[in-house]
Design brief:
Blueprint: E1 9-14, H1 23-33, E2 39-44, E3 50-51, H2 55-60, E4 68-74, H3 78-89
Antiparallel strand pairs: 1-4, 2-3, 2-4
Length: about 100
């Protein structure tokens, strides 16, 4: 769970990748999130929060193209984490066919 003591940052993003978030994009998300000390959660409406550092949690989101997800980050580098994660989620994950 994201700690609110640091001041939680929230942002809503839309999944742009044409295949949504499957195994490879999930691995990229987890790799990015694990590079930060902050706690990171990704929320799909109606679902429990997914730990951004846990690949199974991310894959269980089953986020298709066009899905809106809420990103939450809390910690010493939360702003940087949020900016990079939001940019990744709204891109093609740096490849056209993953």
């Amino acid at each position: 769970m994201v700690q609110e003591g640091w001041g939680m940052i929230k942002r809503v993003v839309t999944v742009k990748h044409k295949y949504g978030i499957h195994a490879r994009p999930a691995a990229k998300i987890v790799g990015l999130c694990n590079g930060f000390a902050s706690e990171i959660e990704i929320i799909k409406t109606g679902e429990p929060p997914a730990n951004g550092k846990n690949i199974l949690d991310i894959m269980m989101l089953a986020a298709a193209t066009g899905a809106e997800l809420e990103l939450r980050a809390s910690g010493p580098d939360a702003e940087q984490a949020m900016e990079q994660l939001a940019a990744m989620m709204e891109s093609d994950f740096d490849t056209n066919e993953i």
